[in-house]
Amino acid sequence: MSNTGKDSLLGNKIAAGLLTAGLIFWGANRIANSIVPDDAPKTPAIKLTGLSTAAPPAAAAVGLVSIIPMIATADVSKGMAFVQQQCSACHTLNAGGAAGVGPNLYNVLGSPMFAGGGFAYSDAVKAKAKGNWNYDTMNAWLAAPSSYAPGTAMSYPGIKNDQTRADVVAYLRTLAASPIALPSAAAVKAASAPAAVAATATSTGTPPPAPSIDTLFAKADISKGSALVAQQCSACHALNKGGAAGVGPDLYGIVGAKMFSAAGFSYSSAVQAKAGPVWTPDTISEWLKDPQAFAPGTAMSYPGIKNDQTRADVIAYLNKNSDAPVKLPGT
Ligand code: HEC
Ligand code: HEC
């Protein structure tokens, strides 16, 4: 079989895993919404802790950098690649494409918000639908969907990098027979003044290294970690001893094991370059916080667990799921 054939097979596996993961996230949200009685706490029973705490509400409200000055020079092809990787498991992009887990995104900019035909939007977003999508509203939505519309069915943590958000929105703009106008010079000027400072200060450039979570292992909650892994990782990873590889390798005994070295799994070249040393609590924390930052191009299409305590819970669980748990710092 040719390499191309093998690659596209792997691609299909990944797409299938993503789709399954997406469906599980989405289904969990829907189920949680429908089974939690009205007088219960508003937090769904199974909450996507790691993902949904990723964006403090303040970030969307106060610190959000305008992408208006970046649209004209944004990299549409990077935006396209990003959307294909991270959005297309849930959204079709072609004219007249069917709704999937999410609505079709053709012609979304300039169209009425949350109103595409043939898709049953959640009440959470229906309440936020006001006029047509423009650069500002799309920027805020994509930065943190669940801050923009708490309870939205779009289980996606958001695009934190300002340039990436601009690339994605510039690409979405091209998905139309007649794309909306680029931002006017006046709009660019108005958006540039105060935000430019914030942009350089906060979110361009490489993120600082993940802070150590060493102090959080002592109070880690293994059952919470286990629940999160069952919900967010098990679509791609087996967890039992000797489990078969799926979209990703089996994770039994992974803490303390050699990185990216499970027999019988074909790793991407992105991570092969990092294979060799053993996973320590610190390195696995860095990986799980942001797989794409740890190994750019990795085949693990998972946005990462941003919440430090949640990550500690998950690592404590993974460590226990082993014949030879390592000693976690502080325990
Ligand atoms: C896990 C599935 C999933 C992923 C991944 C996802 N979305 Fe969504 N998206 C949804 C759902 C579901 C909705 C409808 C939200 C609701 O009803 O609460 C939605 C709604 C939207 C809307 C509003 C569309 C409209 O009709 O007004 C836009 C725009 C959007 N998504 C863009 C994106 C982009 C861009 C990405 C990738 C960066 C992305 N989505 C990733 C599921 C997803
Ligand atoms: C969409 C599928 C998918 C999801 C969801 C996913 N992973 Fe992965 N994971 C992968 C793939 C694929 C790899 C191999 C990476 C590569 O080859 O680039 C991987 C690799 C790993 C590795 C390294 C394994 C090794 O052999 O060294 C760890 C650890 C890991 N994942 C943990 C997790 C955890 C924990 C979660 C949930 C919080 C998770 N993954 C969610 C697909 C996924």
Give an overview in words.
This protein is an all-alpha fold. It has two domains: 3-201, Cytochrome c-like domain (Cytochrome Bc1 Complex, Chain D, domain 2); 214-320, Orthogonal Bundle (Cytochrome Bc1 Complex, Chain D, domain 2), CATH 1.10.760. Helix content is 43%, strand content 0%. The chain has helices at residues 3-35, 49-52, 57-61, 76-86, 123-126, 135-143, 145-148, 162-174, 185-201, 222-232, 269-272, 281-289, 291-294, 308-320. Helix 4 crosses helix 8 (162-174). The termini are far apart. One heme C (HEC) is lined by residues 17-18, 21, 229, 232-233, 235-237, 247-249, 251, 254, 259-260, 262, 267-268, 270-271, 284, 288, 298-302, 305, 314.
What is this structure's SSE topology?
Elements: H1 3-35, H2 49-52, H3 57-61, H4 76-86, H5 123-126, H6 135-143, H7 145-148, H8 162-174, H9 185-201, H10 222-232, H11 269-272, H12 281-289, H13 291-294, H14 308-320
Helix pairs in contact: 4-8, 6-8, 10-14, 12-14
Bound molecules: heme C (2 copies).
Structural key phrases:
binds heme C; 2 domains; single chain; Cytochrome Bc1 Complex, Chain D, domain 2; 331 residues; mainly alpha; elongated; 0% strand; 43% helix; 14 helices
Q: What is the assigned CATH homologous superfamily of the largest domain? A: Cytochrome c-like domain
Number of domains: 2
Which ions and ligands are bound to the chains? heme C
Order of helices and strands: HHHHHHHHHHHHHH
Instruction: State the end-to-end CA separation.
Output: 50 Å
